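Students often ask why we bother predicting the structure of a whole assembly rather than each chain alone. The short answer is interfaces. A chain on its own may look different once its partners are present, and contacts between molecules only exist in the joint model. In this exercise we take two input lines together and write out one structure for the complete complex. Read the inputs first and try to guess which parts will touch.
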Amino acid sequence: MSIEAHGIRKNFGAYTALDGVDLNVPQGKLVALLGPSGSGKTTLLRIIAGLEFPDPGSGRVLFHGDDVTDLPAGKRKVGFVFQHYALFRHMSVFENVAFGLRVRRRRDRPSSAAIAERAHRLLELVQLDGLAGRYPSQLSGGERQRVALARALAVEPKVLLLDEPFGALDARVRKDLRRWLRRFHDEIQLTTIFVTHDQEEALEIADEVVIMNKAHVEQVGTPQEVYDKPASPFVYQFLGNVNVMRAPALVGANRRPGRTEGAPAEGQIYVRPHDIEVTPHDATGTGSSAIVRHIHAAGPHARLLLEQVQTREQVEVEISRSELADLGLQINDLVRFRLRQTHSFDEDYAI
Amino acid sequence: MASAIATTLSSRPSRVVLPRATRDSAWTRWLLTGIALAFLAFFLVLPLLVVFVQALEKGVGFYLATIREPETLAAIRLTLLTVAIVVPINVLFGVAAAWSIAKFRFSGKSLLTTLIDLPFAVSPVIAGLIYVLVFGAQGWFGNWLIDHHLQVIFAVPGIVLATTFVTFPFVARELIPLMQAQGSDEEFSALTLGANGWQTFWRVTLPNIRWGLFYGVILCNARAMGEFGAVSVVSGHIRGETNTMPLHVEILYNEYNIAGAFAVASLLALLALVTLVLKSIVEWRQIRAS
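Now the answer. The structure tokens for the assembled complex follow.
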């Protein structure tokens, strides 16, 4: 089922959480709502779920073309997974999953045998069938998350909404579980929206990323699109490390022959640390001179902190460890660096 | 939460090696412990013993005879009736107040929270007087009540009103921090899963607060049975009709029926002991549950 939201506005007292937000999620897609805290992403998700309502008269929410703006959460057929799971702490895993079926009106309620069968099938689906009798407090974070997912799926939702689904897990489990979620989504093909503040997570598993900032949508696109063609300085900075440099400092110094794109005479330019090339400082080399101030070599890549000789601007650079070994760099060495790929935005576009 | 003030007289701290700087000399430790124990013995244990010793002074036969007196039985009945009305009312009010304070955003919330504490701040005598001034013969509704042959003051309704006022913070006070700590996500979950408000309350909220609620009920019950000041003002002390147990103790005592007074008092003291035991059990359950 597709999800659309048009012109959603939401104020909490004097605070504006959403200021005329539009969203369009096609059937069967896995979409990430990405943004810093306070950007309005969770409020938008809760409005789609029917747990909050947009300011009166401000906008509509449509499921598969039908207006559901005024429907309460229970009637929207959404599966919602909370950041902290919100499992019913006094019920076993099995009872948690069965809850949505047990509270149905008698004529819609399956028999106990059918409920038990469905609950066990769902627990199998999330690979937790052996834990049906446990209580939430006896489970690990990742297991709780999957119980919450099974519980949400038990009512056969048309849409799955996940609020920071991996936010409360440790780094390793996070990675496993997000890949699992991607495979799981491919299997069940349910239109899914998840909220996250982790750009890596969004870029890795989403079909489409909606980047939000300060109650607005900044950009919508595939992970590739938003990463390679950020629509605003905010998006550029939010999606990864970036060096913001004053352009005049670079004029004449960094451009390779025949390459003039991306470095205007005025304003600022944006460069990702891995888009900078470092070469030894010899007389024939091109690029600007800089002094190596810090070398951080633990991890998959080596990170260098350079200080430009002319402007004393600090530049962060990421190179492979083998490159670092080839260069044989020491702290306070003189090097040259060149920008491979840069971005610039109109100066009047405030961050 | 309540567990912070758990009664742990029985559980001795295990041997923990404290850093030297925070270790007091043996002399200081014994002195402080001794003062605390002497204080407890003198002000709590001794009076409690006196109650039972005095009650049984003239023998078990006299004790039972006192309790079986019609006026004593009437006082016990009235106290139980009052509790049977007041506790359910305060459970309803307490749950509703705690629910709205913990789960909704509304203006005037802090005012409501403060008002709930009012009975703790006001002398019970004032609480009784309020109702005399409102419902008494010279009060605001006095004439209207007389015209309709309704009696509130110097009758059971007045006793119930005064007791309700004095005891309404207990359940609410117990539940508010508990419900605030638990948040509303479980309720929201239930709603997205299709449960209606009633199902959400019975299947999710109530089981989550049951121990806190029970604890509040115990305290509310103990106070409702023992309330003296407010009830004394509105009761009129009519023997066999508007005398509750604490008032009856006073009457017997004033008549120099010391053994009789202590016999009835021992029933209230027993209630206190039962309350303490229940309270400890609930606290133990709460600690185990969390």
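Check your guess against this: The longest helix of chain A spans residues 171-188.
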